[in-house]
Design goal:
Elements (H helix, E strand, L loop, with lengths): L1 H7 L5 H7 L4 H29 L1 H22 L6 H27 L4 H33 L1 H19 L16 H6 L2 H9 L4 H9 L5 H26 L4 H18 L6 H28 L6 H30 L3 H31 L1
Membrane topology: Multi-pass membrane protein
GO molecular function, one term: transmembrane transporter activity
GO cellular component, one term: plasma membrane
């Protein structure tokens, strides 16, 4: 929870910082592609390292280094232009990916079967989103009052402090082995590329749209992320309980539908309250999809090399989020002043992801049951 709170103080505003310091919006989307590559590499390295030296050690080291990188991001804002900030942000994404991969693997170690994993990931998400509910709101207020630089310094100190709590986590998993996942694993998780590109629009695209088109303040944008976090805390457990008793793909499709409705609602109203309602709807979609995706990726992995497999999964999803940010940047370049066209083009990604899951994931899950 503390790590998520600390990270979420500033991460929703990275793209806005780049945009406000002169980077064209299309280039911001391309830059997010590079950030995703850095995070993906970090997850790949973190997964392999967690198999070699243990999940807890990797998590603690990653948190300490990530905190230092966040502080460096704050200090870089004292320099002119946006490239010093862009460079340190890439380093932080690499280090943050390392610690997150270890956490994801540790949760998978404690699951027994796909439905059990759905429950575990749902439970973890509740704790994570307690932090996410407050972080963006507090971070937006800090940025308004003290400036972005101070907000990043505070975030870095809090992330480093969270490593102390990671030391109390009981070690898990088998140490000593790692390896590259087989090609069939990559093929079976390929539908998640489109899915994560789609859900990544709840980030750069939403933040820039609400700021540039709707005119929301940083505190107002932060309140949207607070709604997101509170909705997860309130609804994740009952939704996960229902998911664990039925076919996982059916719930995945329902989640994509809620996402699509919530995104499109953003085009239909201009008030803060309407934006909050739209975010509440798409968050229900997040509650359905997120535990399912993590559980499926775990269930399809080789348990003896879980860290390496989930590191590869994290690499794929990280790159996919960046592809989504790049796609969103292009869409905003063309349609930023035409909300219906903008969010309609975003929902096309969601439809494509659902179709891909039907053709690829459904057969893979049937083989898993047999």
């Amino acid at each position: 929870m503390l790590r998520t709170f600390a990270i979420s103080l500033v991460t929703p505003y990275v793209g806005l910082v780049m945009y406000s310091r002169g980077m064209p919006i299309g280039e911001v989307g391309a830059y997010y592609l590079a950030l995703g590559a850095a995070s993906a590499l970090g997850q790949l390295l973190g997964g392999a390292a967690s198999d070699r030296i243990g999940r807890r050690r990797v998590m603690v080291l990653g948190l300490l280094l990530s905190g230092a990188a966040l502080a460096a991001m704050g200090l870089s804002l004292r320099l002119p232009g946006y490239w010093p900030f862009a460079s340190t942000t890439a380093v932080e994404n690499l280090l943050g990916g390392i610690s997150f991969s270890a956490l994801n693997t540790m949760v998978g170690d404690r699951g027994n079967g796909i439905r059990d994993m759905v429950r575990n990931y749902g439970t973890v998400r509740i704790g994570i989103n307690l932090g996410w509910a407050l972080g963006p709101l507090v971070g937006g207020a800090l940025a308004d009052l003290l400036g972005y630089g101070a907000a990043f310094l505070i975030s870095g100190a809090a992330v480093a402090a969270s490593s102390l709590f990671a030391l109390t986590v009981e070690p898990s998993g088998i140490q000593g082995g790692s390896g590259i996942p087989d090609r069939s694993y990559f093929a079976r998780i390929s539908p998640f590329v489109l899915l994560y590109a789609f859900i990544a629009q709840f980030g750069l695209t939403l933040t820039v749209f609400e700021s540039a088109v709707r005119g929301l303040s940083l505190a107002g944008i932060g309140s949207l992320y607070t709604i997101n976090g509170l909705m997860v805390v309130a609804l994740q457990y009952p939704i996960t309980s229902r998911e664990s008793r039925g076919g996982v793909l059916r719930w995945l499709y329902i989640g994509v539908l809620f996402y699509a409705v919530g995104f499109y609602m953003l085009s239909l109203g201009s008030s803060l309250w309407w934006s909050m309602l739209s975010v509440a709807v798409l968050t229900v979609g997040e509650d359905f999809t997120s535990p399912i995706v993590s559980a499926v990726a775990n269930a399809l992995a080789d348990p003896a090399k879980r860290g390496s497999y989930l590191g590869a999964f994290g690499m794929i999803t990280g790159l996919s989020r960046s592809i989504g940010a790049f796609y969103g940047g292009i869409a905003m370049s063309e349609f930023l002043r035409d909300p219906l066209a903008l969010w309609g083009s975003i929902d096309a990604l969601g439809a494509a992801s659902a179709i891909s899951a039907a053709f690829v994931l459904a057969p893979a899950l049937r083989r898993l049951r047999t």
